[in-house]
Amino acid sequence: MSYFVFSRQSLRLDESQSLWQTSFSVQRLLRIVASDVHVPFYHIILHFWQVFFGNSVPVARILSLIFFVLTIPAIYFLGKITYGKKIGALAALLVTVSPFLNWYGNEIRMYSLFVFLTVLNQYFFIKIYKNRKEGQTTWSLYALTAILGALTHYFFLFQILAQVIFYFLYRKSFEAKSFKRFAVIISVLAVILGIWFYYVISLQNIGFSRPRLQEPTTYNLFDTALQFVFGFQSDHFNSLVVALWPLGVLLTFLTLGRSSKIKPDTYYLFLSIFVPIILSFLVSITIQPLYLARYLILTVPSLYLLLGWVFSTYTPRVSSLAQVALVAVMIFMLSDESVNVNLAIKENFRLAAEVLNQKTGPRDAIIISPPFTIYPVEYYYRGPGTVTTLPAWNRFSAGGIPEFSEDKLIKETDQLKSSYDRGWLLLSYDQGYEKDIKSYFDNHFQRLEAYNLSPGITLYSYKFNYNEDPLARVK
Amino acid sequence: MLDRKNFLKNIYVSKGLLTANVAMAFIYFVILTFWFEKGNTYLYWFLIAGEVYHVWQIVMYCYTVWPRQRNLFFDPDYRPAVDVFITVAGEPVDIVEKTIKAAKVMDYENFEVHILNDGYVAKKDNWRDVESLARTLGVGCITRKVPGGAKAGNINHALKNTSKPFVAVFDVDHVPHRDFLKKTLGYFGDHRIGFVQTPQFYKNQNLNEVTHGAWEQQELFFGSICGNKDKINSVFMCGTNMVIRREALEEAGGMSESITEDFITSQYIHAKGWRSAYVPEVLAEGLAPEDMLSYYKQQFRWARGSLEVIFKYNPLFRKGLSWDQKMQYISSAGYYLSGLFVMINAVFPLVYFFTGAVPFQISTMALAVAFLPYIFLTVLTLMISSNYSFTFRAVSFSMSSFLIHSKAFLDIILGRKSGFTVTPKKGTSANFIYLVLPHIFYIAITFLGIGVAMARDGLTASLMSNISWSMFNIAVFIPFIAAALPSRKFSFALKPKYASAV
After folding, report:
1. Which chain B residues contact residue A247 at CB under 8 A?
2. Is the N end or the C end of chain B the one with fewer CB atoms within 10 Å?
3. Are residues A242 and A352 in the same domain?
């Protein structure tokens, strides 16, 4: 169902980047990914997936869906060894109906693989913790998932950090040889990532196509939690639901009861949620913004398991009521997320390209800003116009996206004006200069048409030259 | 199944957790006080006053349960003579009989049981029956003919008519175990020990929701609180299931004749340099109030008596008490001020609904970022320190008693007198819904207020936030309201939580 609902949606910016990056040879793919902000494991898998199964959007999305579907039994087994079958089953159900995980389970990005590897890694970690005499196979699988996880997304390292903290807090519960084994695994991981970092640094071209991230506020912390449970909703809805935070106090007080002791496993789950969130938030407000809800997707399985545990501490009646209510609300939100066309996250570049396909001619310039949004438009656009960006950017030459400046805007726009009759300005993903471009165009050219294609994506057409007859210009 | 000692198990609470809890409480307080633009001045100061109180209670709780060691001396061969007092003030004879029979067969060589019969001065019809029962069972009966001083007066009167160096005191509904004296007298082998207190265990806790709620409140007190107060020589007498050295009591001027004679007398004994001991073992079994009216009376008596400690017998100004003891007495008594702050906090959302006034103009989530970890840590501390026995129902009973506590406070401030009311030992299945009408009224006015606010402001974040707070209050009141319904049988923990009698 998830596939049928979500696979028909427009290709989004990040997805188009994945397709573009993986369309090259592995060697070149590695160079492009290294220059971006990610690690290459998912891209390599996607590259070969396309080699074998084709490179259409639905086919590429199926790869993510496979990892998402595999996460369901994986979290059941993680829940089972942590708290028992009931909580495992509830967590699996929450994953299944999760609007957030369904979304990324159908996106051509690494996030569903990231979640899957996170759950597997947690499973082996908890197994090692619970069974002091765990065999070589479990250790090997733990090591493998740790390495692959770290090569899928940098934020996986937060999970390793949470495990390290937990290990030192409960070291006595682990077998005697475990320290040595963990040390070896972390050393191997460090060497592999060290090699990767060396490669990244040697390129001297890091993050060339990365969107500028906003510094997060305390609101983002709650918004993230909201997205993890309710998926992507409108800003107004989110602001109202975030304001319900005092109910968190009630949910906390309801856990007071004759429950069995809080097991260390629960503290581990707490750590695996809060270490990534708090550290990424602190780094974002002090050093460099890197806080994004989707980067923190690795905390979602722990969150669902923890919700299952919290409900299990309630009286049976309250617990059943809470479970049914949560699942029902999540299903409702999932339905809304799938049909609501007004969500900014949906990035309907396909619609933009359809308009351009119909409206543009050979003397039209399609001007895309910011430059990195060229990928999805390029994927869909089949018209005769010329696709360019503002600021002008050559993706195939060395160096990142050029900085925006007023002088450059005037110069590059003059060049476009001299070559084309009309300019189609497609604006999205405001990087801080959207208004400048828009107002320059509004003040210097006659605006012909305007389209609000989907939240955050606007298309305007401007008349560059008044002489529509190309022969007149030649004369 | 838990055994009846489980709640008394001394649980180690990590110093890191306690430190983090206190630190978070202060961070939250500082953010709340200084971070935001003030709204309505009166609301602001009421809120700040409430938070000062809460932070003080959290700090004191964390200080109380801070891990410490105290090795009390216990001499198993120390077997001095004991007068056993069973205080009676018109309770049913069958209850008196059970306690006398259990007291008589205590495994100890040198003791004498006395019924302290206050039925005559309390104008109860059965005072002669009690005398006759004492004769039948072969125990002493000391019947007062001159009233005054309530239970304390009764004990003081008995002290004049007995002479053994130690007195054990039981309320009539608290049935001692055979080993009660054996397990307590040995502590007096340390000649500095003035009194030994043991827990009050409610054997009827599973009878209905009132008994269960009352027990769950007691559980925290006789579990982690008394167990840890003991380590700083600050446990106080709790009126029953205790043994007192006569010399210490006489030095303190006998039992203080106030509503909470035990609490105040403990102060006097401590002030004279005597030490106290707490035995974390159920050595007697009593009865919880069985209906809401009995619960109200008991809580009012405790609240009134404890608040008198603050306003009339303030331990801060008593010479001879250590700082630990002063702070412990004041924080225990101060618990009953919580009613005022619960009431104030419950009113904030209503004020917003009907007027739009708020204590702060909050536009970020900074308050939640500070408040939620503070609450999580507080709940975690409560969970661990109580050995996971503190329940939401206990929170509900504590918070929902705000009117009783507030009335006690008001009575003291206005100088109104109130007598010693014995907690009824047998409940009725009557409808006590009238006792929770204010809570029901609160729910009704909340829903009306939500309608008013929505019509005024529309669906805003401020409204949602205030709805959440009022829903929190309503959720807390619901178990308490349910307990007041007629013949409300216990419905949540149907299986017995404790093993049968030791």
Report:
1. 468, 471-472
2. N
3. no
- Cβ contact B7:B389 at 8 Å: yes
Per-residue pLDDT, B53: 93
> In this structure, are A224 and A352 located in the same domain?
no
Domain of residue A384 covers 347-474
Same domain for A357 and A330, yes or no, is: no
Subunit contact B379:A252, Cβ cutoff 8 A = yes
| Residue in A218, A252, A253, A262 to test binding to B, most B beta-carbons within 10 Å | A253
Mean pLDDT of A340-361: 86
The ipTM estimated for the assembled molecules is 0.79
DSSP symbol at B489? B
Q: Which of B151, B99, B85, B88 is nearest to B285 (CA)?
A: B99
Interface of A with B in 222-251 (CB under 8 A): 222, 239-250
Question: B313-364: per-residue pLDDT in tens?
Answer: 888 888 889 999 999 999 998 999 989 999 999 999 999 999 988 888 876 6
Residue A207 and residue B23: Cα distance in Å, rounded?
40
Contact present, B156 and B116 (Cβ < 8 Å): no
| pTM over cut 0.90 | no
- Cβ of A320 under 8 Å from any chain B Cβ? no
**Structural domains in chain B (count):** 1
What is the spatial distance between Cα A140 and Cα A185, in angstroms, rounded to a whole number? 9
Please indicate, yes or no, whether residues A289 and A313 belong to a single structural domain of this protein. Answer: yes
* % pLDDT > 90, chain A: 49
Residue A100 has what pLDDT?
A: 94
Q: How far apart are CA B131 and CA A238, in angstroms?
A: 72
Residue B286 lies in a domain: yes
Which of A320, A339, A358 is a domain's end point? A339
Domain tally, chain A? 2
Cβ within 8 Å, pair A256-B459: no
A426-460 residues labelled b (16+ CB within 10 A) or e (exposed): bbbeeeebbeebbebbeeebeeeeebebbbbbbbb
A405 touching chain B per CB within 8 A: no
What is the model's pLDDT at position A103?
Answer: 92
Same domain, A420 and A442: yes
Candidates B15, B382, B383, B494: best to mutate against A (most CBs of A within 10 A) is B383
Name the strand (E) or helix (H) holding A446.
strand A446-454
- Residues in Cβ contact with A112 at an 8 Å cutoff, skipping those fewer than 6 apart: A64, A65, A67, A68, A71, A101, A104, A105
Instruction: Give the contacts of A204 (CB within 8 A, at least 6 positions apart).
Output: none
Q: How high is the pLDDT of residue B216?
A: 86
Partner residue facing B468 (CB), from A244, A256, A257: A244
Residue B256 resides in a domain: yes
Closest Cβ opposite residue B471 in set A245, A250, A256: A250
Q: What is the pLDDT of residue A474?
A: 47
Contact of B35 with chain A, judged by CB distance below 8 Å, is answered with no
For the record, the structure tokens of A117 come out as 């590897």
Among A315, A339, A363, the domain boundary falls at A339
- What is the CATH classification number for the domain harbouring A387? 3.40.50
Chain B residues near residue A252 by CB distance under 8 angstroms: 372, 375-376, 379
Question: In the 8-state DSSP scheme, what is residue B88?
Answer: E
Say if residue B490's pLDDT is above 60.
no
pLDDT at residue B205 tops 50: yes
Closest approach of chain B CAs to the CA of A215, in angstroms? 14
Looking at the structure, tell me whether residues A102 and A179 fall in a common domain.
yes
